[in-house]
């Protein structure tokens, strides 16, 4: 069973960009700002550089068997039972990630835009939309993202240009205050949330028409997403100041409220909300579809169709169970990056090591075979 066929290199790159930006556009800037204060932009640069290494590592592991999903390649490299265990853990990781994305949507909508709406109603609507997207298939999701990318790019440019008059360069001073330790601590989440979650593309790589261009497109998409997040983190410090940016749960949304051009263009939060909801939805829809296929392949089902309703119902339940309130939810920042690291860096290294060991063993067997033939 294959996930999809017919993704172009451009569509794959855009999926990588959407996943990199995703929910991070709204919630990420406050985390490095809390750790590194006015030096959060330096943390973002370090995180971007480290993230490119992570992306290269994921793409290298994905190129081992470009026509196999992670479930299939892990069973081939690790054996049936170890491969099944890896696949099961990856399924749980996908499910927890989508639950967290759904909870973020609910928290934002009920605290910033629709405070009188029950969070359960937001979760039900969002899970239903994800289920519909997954039902239509990953290629449809990719085409939707491709069609809407021009609007995303236009709104991003408008968002940045309208904030230029609000910039205060003094907010970057003093540079390097506090030393290297807080800067490195702030760079961890900049590496984890945008780039390590690209491990989901292990399941998408088999659907790319030309596997040979997969790595370059993946790097291009991730780099674009990283530059977008770096820009928003820098703007958060320049416009809001390090103290406000670190205290705010949604600093980029606060940025949008600062836009004021000639007392005519004001409070353009809808620009930021559109960009965030679009990138978050594409990311969540990809995770949802991949979850279906990963679960089906792990359990040996013939098809992944028909699981949209059960998974969406479970997501509505676990999105509430994952934390008691918005403040407790953001405490997961302390350990979530390490879970992302497990299924991106560690898993990729394990796949590459297993592949190298099998190649080495195959080479030794071939040498022994030639020696035996020579003796005969």
UniProtKB/TrEMBL annotation:
GO terms of biological process kind: spore germination
Annotated coiled-coil segments of the chain: none
Subcellular location: Membrane
Protein's UniProt keywords contain Cytoplasm: no
TM ranges: 12-28, 40-60, 81-100, 120-138, 147-167, 187-209, 221-241, 270-288, 309-329, 335-356
Keyword annotations: Germination, Membrane, Transmembrane, Transmembrane helix, Transport
Pfam families in the record: Spore_permease
Gene3D superfamilies documented for this protein: Amino acid/polyamine transporter I
Source taxon at top rank: Bacteria
Gene Ontology terms: cellular component: membrane
Topology versus the membrane: Multi-pass membrane protein
Family: Belongs to the amino acid-polyamine-organocation (APC) superfamily. Spore germination protein (SGP) (TC 2.A.3.9) family.
Entries under PANTHER family matching the protein: SPORE GERMINATION PROTEIN A2
Name of the featured protein: Spore gernimation protein
